[in-house]
Amino acid sequence: MTQPDQQPIISISHIAKVYEMGDEQVHALRDVSLTIGANEYIALMGPSGSGKSTLMNMLGCLDTPSSGTYLFNGENVSDLNDDELAEIRNREIGFVFQTFNLLPRATALQNVELPLVYAGIAKAKRIEMAEQSLTHVGLDDRMDHKPNELSGGQRQRVAIARALVTNPSIILADEPTGNLDSKTGQDIMNLFNELWRAGNTVILVTHEEDIARHAHRIVRMRDGLIESDEANTKPLT
Amino acid sequence: MIKWSEIGESFRIATNALRTNLLRSVLTTSGVVVGVVLVVVMGWTINGLDAIWDETISIIGKDMIYVDKWNWSGGGNWRKTETRKDITLEQAQALVARMETSELAIPLARQWGGSVSYGNKSIRCGIYGTTFEYAFTPAGVTEFGRYFNEVEQRQADNVVVIGYGIAKAIFPDGDALDKQIKIHGIPFRIIGVVEKRGFLFMDFIDNQAFIPLFAFRSAFGFFDRSFSIGIKAGSVKLLDIVRDEAIGHMRQIRNVHPTEEEDFSINETEAFDDQVRNIRIGIWTVGIGLTILAFIVGSIGIMNIMYVSVTERTREIGIRKAIGAKRFSILSQFLIESALLCLTGAFIAFPISQGLIAGIYWTARAGFDLEFLSVVSPLIQIDLLLIAIAVSVAVGLLAGLLPAFKASRLAPVEALRYE
Ligand SMILES: Nc1ncnc2c1ncn2[C@@H]1O[C@H](COP(=O)(O)OP(=O)(O)O)[C@@H](O)[C@H]1O
Ligand SMILES: [Mg+2]
């Protein structure tokens, strides 16, 4: 477990998230504090409904907390408006989802290009960067395929290439192997290991011990609270 | 700050979206199609009317002034006009003699509600007594035969030049020349037929017959008659000068005191502009009303389908937002889609409008024998196409505004959870 002296990328303290469901209030996160530094490899674990995805959305600036503070690279996220959050997501965060979340009518290359489109990068440069990213995840021969022409593992690789293409500060993966068979899941995990070794910061949400064992730090959640936060002394990396 | 990469992406998304739902898109645009057809057909009609009007005016003569007791446009106080003294032949001849700046000045005697007859056929028409110089006005161009000459005029021969309308009614086979027709019971020999001049409501100018001034006196007499003077300026530029000169002479001739207003009227083709303006306004009011209605119905349809499109693509919006699309990116994506949708409508409407216009044109031309349509083009003018394109894009942007706004404000997490 690395705890670098430099400023942490993520620092949240006493974060809570409450969803209103009619008259009922759902406390998805109750009081969560967490600090994450550069080039960490963290697994967020916990049973279904414990608030993992909610926390990950918060960390990825997709959602804002009901209370508590969130500093991203020292900047208070609560002060930012929708467009500023979009810009942080675009530049600093790479998302990988359980359901891939690719645009079905766009090719692999176009999907990977998309974050660069919103970053305002010119077409030629965009294609070059997207090709590089796809090559990196081993899909140099599948660039013009649409998602429905790719296997699950290949789709997740496209998603990872898309997450990587802007060279973000952190990669957030919510159950990235949840829709894959175990062999393919293993391949994807190897890819994450590789990304970590290359210097990326990786946050992995999972409820499977086998997957979590790859990480160097394991944060366990229950009922919207952090139950434990421990180093994994024997990572499978 | 506009990122062109985003706009390009928006176009790509929009064309893709339209292509995948081609049938639905085409059906949705029907309101816009109707609106554009109306705009184009209305515009074409007004343009055509203008062209016909222009032609009519130039045939009557844009540089012609008619000094008359009566005011053609019916303007001014009719009662006051009625109390004016008649313009006598002497006054008319005095003005003709004094005019210097004009190309031509001709005295005219007019018999309203006259008629000419041939055998058992008879037609009501205006009869004019004038000089041979009338041949040099725009009204004097003959299709067959010739105008009467100076000798015939001086001898007050019983010769007549008839208008196109009269010739057509009485001699449909086109054999009017040298026939003897009766005017007020007196036989006149037809020596010429004036070419067709009247369009639309100006048809009456084809129902006129011209005879030498003193032949007119034999037929109708000069007693209790107000003469008028036709003055040809020579060019539209000279109109002001010629008009001023004519007014000056006429005031003197009629002894109008400098502080009094004129006791005669100056008539020009402008007098008819009011009538054309009214027709135009009529077309516009009806046309604009229908068009607005069609576009309202159309934009409700477009708005509806755009809401459907936003809902269908909620997840896509979530994905785009997750990877960094800002509100404006999403907004522009849907605005461009709805503008393109309407533009598609416009392009569907163009061939329909063209077909309709060609149909109207040829029906009017062949079916109703409206040959004056030859000055109108049966093709849609380019500027009409551009206006229609602009209007349909504007309607698209307007109709897409609310759905696009809704899309741009979706919360990313909610959008991603949408199934
Ligand atoms: N948008 C939402 N509206 C209402 N309740 C929600 C929403 N998102 C999550 N929840 C609730 O918050 C709790 C935590 O959910 P989540 O973070 O998705 O759990 P996990 O990812 O650990 O399975 C659950 O009880 C879930 O039903
Ligand atoms: Mg979850």
Spatial extent as radius of gyration of chain A: 17 Å
Widest beta sheet: strand line-up of chain A: 6-7-8-3-9-10
Enumerate how many helices of chain B there are, as a single number: 14
Distance from first to last alpha carbon of chain A: 13 Å
Output the strand order for the largest sheet of chain B: 2-3-8-5-7-6
Bound molecules: adenosine-5'-diphosphate, magnesium ion
Spatial gap, N to C terminus of chain B:
33 Å
Largest sheet of chain B: 6 strands, mixed, barrel
| CATH homologous superfamily designation of chain A | P-loop containing nucleotide triphosphate hydrolases
- The helix content of chain B is 40-55%
The profile of the biggest β sheet of chain A is: 6 strands, mixed
Helix content of chain A: 25-40%
Number of strands of chain A: 10
How much of the sequence lies in strands of chain A comes to 25-35%
Radius of gyration of chain B: 32 Å
Q: Averaged pLDDT of chain B, please? A: 88
Record keyword descriptors for this entry.
heterodimer; A: 237 residues; alpha/beta; Rossmann fold; six-stranded mixed β-sheet; four-stranded antiparallel β-sheet; 32% helix; globular; B: 419 residues; alpha+beta; six-stranded mixed barrel; 10 strands; elongated; binds adenosine-5'-diphosphate; binds magnesium ion
Structure description:
The complex is a heterodimer of chains A (237) and B (419). Chain A has 237 residues and is of the alpha/beta class. Chain A has a single domain (39-63, 79-231), classed as Rossmann fold (3-Layer(aba) Sandwich), CATH 3.40.50. In chain A, 32% of the residues lie in helices and 27% in strands. The longest helix of chain A has 16 residues, at 182-197. Chain A is globular and about 45 Å long. By secondary structure, chain B is of the alpha+beta class. Chain B has 2 domains: 4-57 and 275-417, no CATH class; 85-263, no CATH class. Chain B has helices at residues 4-20, 22-28, 30-60, 78-82, 89-98, 150-154, 164-170, 213-220, 239-253, 273-312, 314-322, 327-367, 382-408, 412-417, and strands at residues 64-68, 104-118, 121-130, 142-145, 159-162, 180-183, 186-194, 208-212, 228-232, 265-267. Chain B has a 6-stranded mixed β-barrel. The radius of gyration of chain B is 32 Å and the shape is elongated. The mean pLDDT of chain B is 88. The A-B interface holds A 57, 60, 62-63, 82-83, 86-87, 89-91, 95, 97, 101-103, 105, 114-123, 126, 162, 166 and B 3-6, 8-9, 16, 20, 315-316, 318-329, 411-413, 416. The structure holds adenosine-5'-diphosphate and magnesium ion.
